[in-house]
Amino acid sequence: MSVETHEVHRHPAPTGFIRKYIFSLDHKVIGIQYIMLALAAVIVGMLMSLLMRINLSWPGTKISILGTLFPGGAPGGVMNPEFYLSLVTMHGTIMVFFVLTTAPQGGFGNYFLPIQIGAEDMAFPVLNMLSFWVTFVGFIVILSAIFLSGSESTVGPIGGWTGYAPLSALGAIAGPGQGMGMNLWIISIAIFCVGSLLGALNFITTLLNMRTRGMSLMRMPLTCWAWFTTAVLALLSFPVLLGGGILLLLDRLAGTSFFIPGGLYVSGVLSGSNPNFPLHTGGSPILWQHLFWFFGHPEVYIAILPGMGATSHILATFARKPVFGYRAMVFAIFAIGLLGFFVWGHHMFISGMSPYSAIAFSVLTLSIGVPSAVKTFNWLGTLWGGRIRFATPMLFALGFVSLFVAGGITGLILGQSSLDLPMHDTYIVPAHFHLVMGVASIFGMFAATYFWFPKMFGRFMNERLGQIHFWVTFVGVYSIFVPMHVMGLVGMPRRFSSFAEYEYLRALDPLVTFVTIAAITTITVQLLFYFNVFWSMFKGKKAGDNPWEATTLEWSTTTPPPHDNFAGVLPTVYRGPYEFAVPGAPNDYLMQTESGAEEPSGNGHNGHKH
Amino acid sequence: MGRVLAVIIWLLTLLSVVIFFNKKWWLPPAISDHAPALDRQFLLTIIIVGIAFSAAQIGLGWMVWKYRDSGKADDRALYTHGSNRLEVVWTVITAIVFIGLGVMGQRVWASLRLHDAPAGSYSVEVVAQQFQWNFHYSGKDNVFGRTDPSLIDDSALNFIGIDESDPSAKDDSVTSSLVIPVNRPVELKLRSKDVIHSFWVPPLRFKQDLVPGMEIKVHFTANKVGKYELACAELCGQLHFKMKSYMLVLPEDQITALRALPQEQFQTKVQELLTNTPLAPSY
Amino acid sequence: MATMVTSTKTVTKPGKGGSSKFPGPNGNGKKNGHEFFDSDSRAHRYRIGMWVALASIAMMFTALSSAYIVRAASANDWFPLLMPRVLLASTAIILASSATFEAARRKLKASMISGYSRWLVITALLGLAFLGSQFIAWRQLRAQGVYMATNPHSSFFYLLTAAHALHLFGGLMALLYLLVRARHLSMAEAVDLRRRAVADAVGIYWHFMDVLWIYLFLLLFFWR
Fold it and tell me: Tens-of-pLDDT digits for all 224 residues of chain C?
């Protein structure tokens, strides 16, 4: 047993531009590709939300470029209702799939999971590359859904990101937005499913098979636990969406009746009486909702779990203190992931499914509050007694905790079947999920970006710009989404392109305008972030190997990491991931690679109180 | 920096609580029998939510206020990996509160949804279509005439496909607004001709999807006379935002008189009532 | 370095929480397992990856079959097809192909490369025969005027058999890959282990396709 020879075959880095940067097999390059994809997608999604807010606050606003790009959706530059609805659909789909699923998992997970467990790459680099390029094709297809159909005097898909059948299943007869754009929407999601599955397969195998010497499961950083659980959720939920998507596409293109019931009378045509509308019988619209939400609910955790992992990681690093209750944190991640598979029905309380199952779904839903509260408790516990350093990554991590609480806690309202009667499909729903799965996740990603940027590019991001970015964004997102909750109480419905029809919504006009102004401000400040990212890549302050004085393996290799991560010698791990402030140690942090006495660590038992 | 962040977090918390608990923007005044219980559950929930939210944010602010890095090299954080006892206590407390809340929240649901409409309910068939509501009343005989999708003819204004040859259809009426009696259980039989719609009257605290291919029966009791706005709450296509109607809650004697009228007069009378009744104030 | 620890606990106390026990940390999180980065452990990833992939394939077919069951119960337009007899032949062929694959694997274990290749070819031919037999079943149904949209059962029949056939086609490609690799002989142990692990992974997949077909066959024609 020659344990001293850790030497593995050094993989020479490819030299050609295409193999190095385009079709790269290096998980780090693929991670950055994913992040770039997300950065591009989030601009599109954000601009769409901006257009929607402008339409809600100042209907009839003329934006000439819109008229040029989408002659069907905004004739003369003025948005019509169907274009608004296709923006709703595209914004949701792009943000959920191509931003919240790609950046946290495909981006940062790809880059840092192998390094943090001490592997020289992912288990299947070719699959990893394929997973990115498949996802990329999915993104092109989703863009074509609105841009292509925009030119033929119709608009993009209309269905919300949930695409409820039979509206989404009937085809062009059901009105604008149900033609080619909807086909492309479904195809794009199916492609995305395949890409995510390849990624998930890779993450799970890598974590199980490629951990370095001494990296036992309970010595992994919490980020790795989060990425692993996320991968398991993706692995088990995306196939269901893929299956459902295939059924939906067949209903549209092959004339089957999976989701389309009999006896429909759409746009003046009876099903089967006209070649434009073939005969359908007996399909179940609720079946689509079951399939969709069986995927859709775990998807929420796919978006937020990596943010939770990054937050735990960053809080410990900048509070200079071990994570409070590491073991409880791991169990909480698992509990959230597991429960996430049994609560999809809370999206369907009033869908016409059995009222008895609604009760089971409701109680299970509220029980997800328990592991979420455990996480919050432990984050506060990690800060307690710490020596907090307020760098930008820490600010965003603290913002994550605040927003996770603010957004998550209204789940206690929405998860109750009876309270869903007035709340369902009002603005409190988008307010809730935007805060928790949208903004909180994005704060996790901002924190991750500011934190890992020095490792990825060898330079710090500008601290002053980062601070401004944080303060405005933090106050901005509260200003956008808290008033939206109140709109929901009054009863403002989602997915309305105009509220002019309803008297009872008059009282909300000032809030609508306030939210729009807050949204414009917040979106504008994101330009600072973009500038900061690209400026700092070339002009930022140079960073050393371990600029934050952190403990995990990514900080024990050079900055930026070499092609095989550890220059041929894989590290050995001697202790848990967050050994800060160890009494008697020379520094206030002990890296995982520092040998010496074995340190009992990473456990939740009550030890080492001084 | 820590202090600034703490103050901002506390301010945002305060403003969030204030905007939630102001009287200007709240649930609309309730008009149904199940609403008071529902509102009580909502109030209980939002108080618990408010306390948990404020406690967490105040705690977070306090941590960042108090535990700043002093910058001194020998000043180190507390070295602890946590406490199992605290974790268990905290888990049990939140489990009891959250799951207890969830179980309590089922009472209103159970009372509304787990049994059929009581005998003697006033029954209306609701047939939704893109982007219009049709309400079908059975007339004097209390029997709904047969309907068949193949008889639907929008141009002849037979929106729901009533079979004129069915004798029980003779006294039926169809309107585009919902007219129901006050203080009497109402049963709605919800259907859709094309895609999913959702029946929603905000002051009623009531919402239910209308799913094509299904007939969904729901019931409630309205207890305040007046005219209320009725919206579609499920994305149903291009003009979803315009799929609006009214719900007219009338005293029982007016309802009896209405039901005695033949179809055309029924519609005219409802139209007349609609124009003459002012919209119930939302605040 | 031991002086660094001033904790009240003894230094040698093994950590709870899965941290490693003496002697020394091991690779891949195994406590007393393989030597660090030995080839066997690395080759293991092909088997792990295959099981993970199968979990996701199984999940998709679970979703489709739950749709099948819900759809069968949800309306009165459910008229099951009569089983095309040729599907019995399909079943026999795919069962036989699993056996021949096992024979191939046995040859590989015994390092008899030519025997290994021969059995692989036979397995691949059986796989092709299965696809052909499925194709005949579709042809027969079409000749009877049963199409995708004819009724929900026929929709599910075409969908499930086509999805299975597509996956089986992927398995055929994997067999082809094994065949190509089998031509390059190598005596190096690491290469041999890796080759065996890849063959094992393909084997797991091939047997899974077999079991999946039996399951779909029973679901489509015997589940009432």
Answer: 333 333 333 333 333 333 333 333 334 444 433 344 555 677 889 999 999 999 999 999 999 999 999 999 887 888 888 899 999 999 999 999 999 999 999 998 888 888 899 999 999 999 999 999 999 999 999 999 999 998 999 999 999 999 999 999 999 999 999 998 887 766 666 677 888 889 999 999 999 999 999 999 999 998 86
Q: Residue A580 phi/psi, 5° resolution?
A: -100, 155
Distance in Å, alpha carbon of A127 to nearest chain C alpha carbon: 11
Identify the residue whose tokens are 């009287």.
Answer: B23
| H helix runs in C148-188, sequence order | 152-182
* Helix-then-strand count for chain A, H and E: 19, 4
- CB contacts of B42 in chain A (<8 Å) are 413, 419, 422
Contact A380/B207, CB-based, under 8 Å? no
Output the six-digit token pair for B69. Answer: 């890095």
* Res C4: pLDDT: 39
Taking contacts as CB-CB distances below 8 angstroms, the residues of chain C near A3 are: 24, 35-36
Cβ–Cβ pairs < 8 A, chains A and C: 215
Beta strands B244-250; B178-181: pairing state = parallel
- Looking at residue C147, what is its pLDDT? 92
CB atoms within 10 A of CB A356: 11
Query: Tokens in use for B213?
Result: 């291919």
Q: Which two tokens stand for residue A354?
A: 């059995």
> What subunits touch chain A, counting only 3 or more CB pairs under 8 A?
B, C
Task: Give which of A431, A369, A435, A429 is closest to A402, Cα–Cα.
Answer: A435
Q: Are the beta carbons of B38 and B205 closer than 8 angstroms?
A: yes
Question: Is the Cβ of A607 closer than 8 Å to some Cβ of chain C?
Answer: yes
Query: Among positive and negative, which fits the CA dihedral B40, B45, B46, B48?
Result: positive
| Nearby residues of A140 by Cβ (< 8 Å), 6 or more positions away | none
Give contacts of B 166-185 with A, CB under 8 A. none
Contacts of C216 in chain A (CB under 8 A): none
CB atoms B207 and A422 under 8 Å: yes
Residue C21 burial by Cβ neighbours in a 10 Å radius (0-12, 13-18, 19+) = middle
Å between A281 CA and nearest CA of chain C: 7
Q: What's the order of all strands across the beta sheet hosting B173-175?
A: B173-175, B132-137, B122-129, B185-192, B216-221
What contacts C135, CB < 8 A, 6 or more positions away? none
* Residue type, position B154, single letter: D
ω into B131 cis (within 30 of 0): yes
Cα torsion A430, A432, A433, A435: sign? positive
Shortest distance, CA C166 to any CA of chain A (angstroms): 14
Report the b/e string of A488-505 with b at 16+ CB within 10 A.
bbbbbbbbbbebeebebb
Residue type, B89: V
Write out chain C residues lying below 8 Å of A604, CB-based. Answer: 17
Q: Which residue has the tokens 């904790």?
A: C7
Per-residue pLDDT tens digits for A35-80: 999 999 999 999 999 999 999 999 999 999 998 888 888 888 999 9
Q: How far is CA A281 from the centre of its chain?
A: 38
Quick count: other Cβ atoms within 10 Å of Cβ A471? 16
C-alpha distance from residue A87 to each of A48, A51, A512, A549 (Å):
6, 8, 18, 44
Residues A54 and A50: their CA atoms lie apart, in Å, by 6
Q: How many Å apart are CA A134 and CA A132, to the nearest integer?
A: 5
Taking the whole predicted model, whether its pTM rises above 0.90 is answered as yes
DSSP string, A263-296: S-EETTEETTSBTTB----S--HHHHHHHHHHHH
Average pLDDT over residues B20-28: 88
The alpha carbon dihedral of A565, A570, A576, A582 has a sign of negative
C39/A contact by beta carbon, under 8 A: no
